[in-house]
Amino acid sequence: MPVAHVTFGSADLERGARFYDAVMAEFGGSRMMESDRAVGWSFPEGGTSIGICTPFDGAPANVGNGSMFALMASGEDQVRRVHGAALANGGSCEGEPGLRENGFYAAYFRDPDGNKLNAFCIPAAG
């Protein structure tokens, strides 16, 4: 089942958009839509897009415990750049870039609203 898009709730679209502008730029992504309630990013090669929105039910945005969105990076350098862009644009660190027990090279971070993401790659065999 292909995933078309992922959307996170945001309490502050302007702040969230600055964060995602920087993080998605590291993957070649750019804004593809923007309204007073939502902002979305897509990628030149297509695939899953990502967006943020104010919750449609009017309740405060909140974080799903145990939820995470993983971004496939082209290599370790891109993982480090994405993590750096996240932290420089209002995100918080949930795990520094490094090799994980499962053989992935990954970094974990949260967006300004507390949604958890990670950037990862499978290192070349060395």
From TrEMBL:
PROSITE patterns: VOC
Stretches assigned to the VOC domain: 2-122
CDD domains assigned to the protein according to its UniProt record, in alphabetical order: VOC_like (cd07262)
The protein, known as: VOC family protein
Organism: Novosphingobium rhizovicinum
Lineage start: Bacteria, Pseudomonadati, Pseudomonadota, Alphaproteobacteria, Sphingomonadales
